[in-house]
Amino acid sequence: MSLQRVGIAMSGGVDSTMAASLLLGQGYAVHGFFMILPLPSAEHQRTRVQEVANKLSLPLHFVDLRRQFTAQVIRSFIDSYLDGQTPNPCMLCNHHIKFGLLADFMMNKGMDIIATGHYARVQQHGHAHFLARGVDRHKDQSYFLARIPGNLLENTLFPLGEWSKDQVYRRAADLGFQFQGEESQDVCFLSRGLSSFLTGQGVQEQDGAIVDRYGTILGRHKGIWNYTIGQRRGLALPDATPWYVTGLDGEHNRVIVGKHTDLFVTACTVEDLQWRDTFPALPWQGLVQVRSRHTPAATLITETGPGRWHLAFDTPQRAVTPGQFAVFYHGDQVLGSAVIARAARETAWS
Prior knowledge:
By secondary structure, this protein is an alpha/beta fold.
């Protein structure tokens, strides 16, 4: 009987390396797949992943996805910032690249199963497969995987889903790998900071106003992409109490500021809502996570019109940010996700 062939996305880092090692120990025929992406550290990663593959004695395939990554992830990232939103490129990459183009490449190479080193799990209920949180709550990555195609889950493995990061490091050390203290970068293509990256992509300074919720001009900025909701530093607005960024108005090139209490909202509007299985009857009540490290909040979802839904939080939530994703949970299970379009933070002049 031939072994099941598993294709695993590998970066040369501790998580994908140990995930591959676990799969080998479970008796799978493991093939490594390295994505060639337009990253500052690409050559270093390529060298290191080859060393890892050699040490684990597994075949390694190189997949050139630079053009597609630029078009579908980097370009969208830039456009979102210019539009006054704060994007989540990891969500886009997992959806379109890792569990899209790379998964297709793996299957075309004869793989039966795809795998990654994410801290998440796949749970089965009847014939349905659900994405679930990883056991290590500090490293859980189910939020970032919420948009991967549901039909892939049946043939997807997350070997680290039951492991803690400390356990992964200890296993790596036992196998003779030196990874201690290494952590992956939040946005892999940002090595010099957001402003430097955007400048390198041809984005030029654009002077605009910093205003309060009434439209009163308090200062000037050189590009709304230099700010995120909840930001306090860099505003240069002296006052008895600190100012915070509470909104970004891409249409009028304005940064909106307020006090700390202005960061809290009771509701938001979302769009592009996708449910993992059967779309539930609305209104729906459950837990919603609006950032990767946000504590899930009890929320009521109602439909407000074609392609638009309203999320009403039981308790006010801080710094709800357009462009980010709202991910819906039942316990540990991911039920669906949507893109945050607008927080219920009305200005006096909008």
